[in-house]
Amino acid sequence: MSRTPRAHRALALAAALAVTAAATPAIAEPAPAGDPSTYIVTLAERPLATYDGGVAGIAATKPGKGRKVDTTSPDAKRYRERLTSRHDQVAASVGATASGHYSVVSNGFTAELTPAQAVRLHTTAGVVSVVPDRLHKALDDRNSSDFLGLSGEGGLWSALGGTAEAGKGIVVGVIDTGIWPENPSFAGPELGDEPPTQADPYRPYRSGTTTVMRKADGSTFTGTCQTGQEFTADLCNQKLVSARYFGKGWLAGNDPAALGEYVSPRDGGGHGSHTAGTAAGNHGVAASVNGIGHGTISGVAPGAAIAVYKALWNDQGTTTDILAAIDQAVADGVDVINYSVGGQSESPVLDPINIAFLHAAAAGVFVAAAGGNSGPSASTLDNTMPWVTTVAATTIAPYLGDVRLGDGTLLHGASSTVTAPYGPHPLAVATSVKAGAATDDDASQCAAGSLDPAKAAGKIIYCVRGVTPRVDKSAEVKRAGGVGMILGNPSDQDTLGDAHTVPSVHINHPDTGTLTAYAATQGATATLLPATSGGPSYPQVAAFSSRGPSTTNQADLLKPDISAPGVAILAAVSPPGNQGKDFDFYSGTSMATPHIAGLAALYLGEHPTMSPSSIKSAMMTTAYDTKTPDLHAQGAGHVDPARMLRPGLVYDATYADWLGYVEGLGIDTQTGVAPIATSNLNYPSIAVGRLFGTRTITRRVTALTPGVYHATLDLPGFKTKVTPSTLVFKTAGETKEFAVRIEMTAKTGSTTTPGTLTWTSGDTTVRSPLVVTPLSAQAPAEVNGTGTDGSVTFDVVPGVDKFPLAAYGPVSADHVPGTVSPSEIWGKEIAVQVPEDAKALAFHLTPGSDQEVGALVFSEGEHGREFEAWVTRWEDFRTVLARPKARTYIMVVVTLGNTDTPYSTQVNLVTAQSVGTLRAEPRKGKVTPGVAFPVTATWTGAGERRGTGYIEYPNGTGTVVTIN
C-alpha cells in the first residue's frame, strides 16, 4: 500500500487491503442527517508526556527513563496553556467551541461538530485526526491468587517480603465504573496530614484536598477524593488514595438515577469494584456469597495503593470521558492502568484512546487492557496496539457440582451454591412450566416472568444458557417457586459456578441431551451434589475470550499478549447492582486484566524504573502453554508470576519504535520517524501475517541476567536460521541484536503455523511465541486505468502453483446530482445497502463549482453508526473499500463554502453478480510460486463515468481496478 500524506487518509485506504460483500447499490434520496455529534480532534504537536522541547522558552516535559511525567513544573504549565490555547483557536476556526481539553497523554479537544465542521477540521493543517465519539463497554484453584502461586510460604508474596510489601510504593489506576469504598477489600488507615517518615516512606497523606504519596520510583503521586452523590472525602484512605469521576459525555444523554448510577466515584454496577479488588485489594478478606463462605480473598498486589477513575456508567462510557480519565491518571502519577474496557470492534490505530495509551506508555505507565469477550471466533479482539498488554481470559480450578438423575445417571458440572446433597426433587424442563403468555424461547431461557408458579413450585428447573444473564435465570426460578436450577449449554461451552439465588449446577453439552430426555419421563427427579473431581483440565482459554489475529495490525503482531485467570473470579462488588451482595463471581477478560495489572505492580515494586515493554516481555517470555494451546487465543501463554521476576532477557521498545511501527502500517504520524517493517517491531513475540518466500526478522534483547544464551527455533514446515545463534552478555544492561530468517519450503502448508524461539542459559529460558501465515499472493490493493476501452498491467507474485483469476465488473453507476447549502449544516445523505457477496465499494464526489465540498462515510453497525472514511480533497474526492461488510453505508455530503454548492456523487458497488467486460489474463496457466508474473486487466465499453472492478485471487483477496 502506498503511503499517504494524511494519517486519517491512510486509515481509510487501509480498509482497502481487506474486503467482503455487495450487489447493485440501493441509493436513498438525499436527506438531512442527525444532530451535531461529539468528536475528538487530535493535533500534531506532542502532549506533555512526550514533548521533548523545541518551543522557545519551554523546556522538554518528557520524563526521563524510569520517571513519570511531572505536570506541576513551570514548563509543564506553560506548555499545557500553549496546547489548550491552540485547541480553542482550532475549534473557533470552524465556529465550534472546545468543550474538553486533553494535554498530558493526548493533544486534542472535544467539541460538538456538524458534519461540515468535521470535514473542515479534517482538512485543516496540523490536525491529525477527527474521530466521532463512541461507546466502550466493560468486558465483563478455586482462588486465583493461590492458583497463580502468590500465597503460601513458598509463594511470590513471601519472596517479596509479605503481603504488606507486595506492590508497596506503587499506585494502580483503575479506569472503570467506580468503587464501593465500604467493601473491606478497600479498607485502610485514615489519611492523616503528617508527611511520611523514613520508616514508612510510601505512606500517603492529605495536604488540603490533595492526597500525596511518594512512590517507589522516587516520584510523587497526587490525587484527590472527589465528592459527589453518596461519596465524601473521608471515604478515601491509605489503600484507596484517590477517586475521581468523568461523565460529561455519558451524562449528557442518560439519566443516571433511572439506571441506578451515582454522580460520583461510587460504583453502581460492581464492575469497577471487582477489577480494583482483583488488582490490588486487601489481603485476607473473608468473602461469602448468598450466605455461603468461600474463605479469604486477596488482590494480586495487596500492598499497592488504588486510584479510581470512574469513566464508565451502567457498564459503558464514551471516548471523551475515557480520554479525560486517562489524561488525569497519568497527570496524577499512577504507575499502572487497568483498562477492562473495549469497543464493539477492533479500534483503528489512530483511535484517540490508542493514542492516549501510546503516550501513557511512553511516560512509563504500564497499561493492561482487556482483549474482549467475543470469542471463540477469529479476529474479534480489541485493544491490540503494541504499547498496551492485551489480556486473554483463562479458567482456574472450577467450582464443581454434579447432577444425579432419578435413574442413577451422574452428570458433571460447575456449582458454587451446592455445598451438600440437595434433593431429590421433581425435575422439569422450563418450557413445561411456562407461563401462559410466555414464548417457548423465553421460557426455555428462564427469562423474567416466563415461568408459571403454579407449575414450577417445588421443582428443580432446567434452563438453557443464552440471552438472559445466567444469574437472572435462577432468580426467575426462585420467583416462580422453584427450589433449584440446572443450567445447560446448548453447545460445547465452558461451565461456570455463578452465585445463583437457588442451588444450581451448570452442565455442558451433550449431557444436556441426556438430561432433557430423562426429564420427559414420568416422575423424573434430580439431586444436586457437591463434587471434588470430574471437572475439565485447566487452565484453558475461555470460550468467550476474544481471539486474534488482529486485522488492524495486519496479523504482523501477535495478540493477545498473555492470558490470566478470568473465569468465576471472586472479588468485591457493589451491593445495589448485585442483589445486595458484597462479593460475587464474575467472568470475562475484564477479570483477567487486573491480574496482569496487579502483577505489573508487583514487578514495579521490585524494579520501579522498569519500562512497560520490558515488564510485558518478562511476563510473555516466562509464560507457559494452556491446556489447549492456540497462539491467537492464549498469546504467549498463561502468566507465571514465580518466573516473571527472573526473565533473563527482555525485549524493550521505545516511543520511537512504536512510532516507526505505526509508520510501517502506512500511517503518516507527522513526526518524521522512519517506518519499520511491522514484523520488525522489537517485541517478545514474532508474527508474520503475510510470509511470501523468505523473510528476515530482527530483534534486540537486553540482559537482566548476564550469561551465554543459545537459540533454539521450532517452526514445522519452514527452513529457519537464527544469526547469531549464541549471544554472550558479560554484564546486566547489555543489548544485542539477532536476526531470524524464515523461508518457505515444499513442506510449508497453506495455513497459519505456530512455533517458538527459545534462548537458553543454564536454567534460564526465554521463550517467544512465533506464528507465520504463508501468503498465496502478493499484489497491489488497487490499480488505476483510463479509457472507455483499455487495460492496465501489474505484477502479481503467487504463493501457490495453481492461481486462477476471477474478474467482476466494471460497475459504473450514474452520477447523482445534488446541491447542499451552508444552512444544511448536517449535510445530505446518500445510503447504500451492501449485501454479503460484495467485492468492492467506491464513493466518488465531484464538486460542481469552485465552492469546496466534502463528505464523511459511515456504516450502520450493530450498535449504531461507525465512522469509515473521509471523501475530501485530501483523498482526491474518493474512497474505496475492498470487501466491505454486509451493512448499510452512508455518505454525508457537506459544503465548505458560503453559497449553495452543487455536486454529484457516484457510488460503485461491485458484487459477485457484477458481470461486465472486465477480464484478467491469464485466467489460468502455469505459475511458479515466488516468481512474479504479469496480470493484465482489460475492459471495453466502460463509458465516460468512473468505473470500479475487482480481480480476485484464490485466497479471496484481490485488487480493485479503478477506471478514470
TrEMBL record:
<dbReference type="GO" id="GO:0006508">
    <property type="term" value="P:proteolysis"/>
</dbReference>
<dbReference type="InterPro" id="IPR000209">
    <property type="entry name" value="Peptidase_S8/S53_dom"/>
</dbReference>
<dbReference type="InterPro" id="IPR003137">
    <property type="entry name" value="PA_domain"/>
</dbReference>
<feature type="active site" description="Charge relay system">
    <location>
        <position position="271"/>
    </location>
</feature>
<keyword id="KW-0378">Hydrolase</keyword>
<feature type="domain" description="Inhibitor I9">
    <location>
        <begin position="38"/>
        <end position="134"/>
    </location>
</feature>
<dbReference type="Pfam" id="PF00082">
    <property type="entry name" value="Peptidase_S8"/>
</dbReference>
<dbReference type="InterPro" id="IPR023828">
    <property type="entry name" value="Peptidase_S8_Ser-AS"/>
</dbReference>
<keyword id="KW-0325">Glycoprotein</keyword>
<feature type="signal peptide">
    <location>
        <begin position="1"/>
        <end position="28"/>
    </location>
</feature>
<dbReference type="GO" id="GO:0005576">
    <property type="term" value="C:extracellular region"/>
</dbReference>
<dbReference type="InterPro" id="IPR034197">
    <property type="entry name" value="Peptidases_S8_3"/>
</dbReference>
<dbReference type="InterPro" id="IPR010259">
    <property type="entry name" value="S8pro/Inhibitor_I9"/>
</dbReference>
<dbReference type="InterPro" id="IPR015500">
    <property type="entry name" value="Peptidase_S8_subtilisin-rel"/>
</dbReference>
<feature type="domain" description="Peptidase S8/S53">
    <location>
        <begin position="167"/>
        <end position="637"/>
    </location>
</feature>
<feature type="domain" description="Subtilisin-like protease fibronectin type-III">
    <location>
        <begin position="680"/>
        <end position="772"/>
    </location>
</feature>
<dbReference type="Pfam" id="PF17766">
    <property type="entry name" value="fn3_6"/>
</dbReference>
<keyword id="KW-0720">Serine protease</keyword>
<dbReference type="Pfam" id="PF02225">
    <property type="entry name" value="PA"/>
</dbReference>
<protein>
    <submittedName>
        <fullName>Subtilisin family serine protease</fullName>
    </submittedName>
</protein>
<dbReference type="InterPro" id="IPR036852">
    <property type="entry name" value="Peptidase_S8/S53_dom_sf"/>
</dbReference>
<dbReference type="InterPro" id="IPR037045">
    <property type="entry name" value="S8pro/Inhibitor_I9_sf"/>
</dbReference>
<dbReference type="Pfam" id="PF05922">
    <property type="entry name" value="Inhibitor_I9"/>
</dbReference>
<comment type="similarity">
    <text>Belongs to the peptidase S8 family.</text>
</comment>
<keyword id="KW-0732">Signal</keyword>
<dbReference type="InterPro" id="IPR045051">
    <property type="entry name" value="SBT"/>
</dbReference>
<feature type="domain" description="PA">
    <location>
        <begin position="442"/>
        <end position="510"/>
    </location>
</feature>
<keyword id="KW-0645">Protease</keyword>
<feature type="active site" description="Charge relay system">
    <location>
        <position position="176"/>
    </location>
</feature>
<feature type="active site" description="Charge relay system">
    <location>
        <position position="590"/>
    </location>
</feature>
<dbReference type="InterPro" id="IPR023827">
    <property type="entry name" value="Peptidase_S8_Asp-AS"/>
</dbReference>
<dbReference type="GO" id="GO:0004252">
    <property type="term" value="F:serine-type endopeptidase activity"/>
</dbReference>
<dbReference type="InterPro" id="IPR041469">
    <property type="entry name" value="Subtilisin-like_FN3"/>
</dbReference>
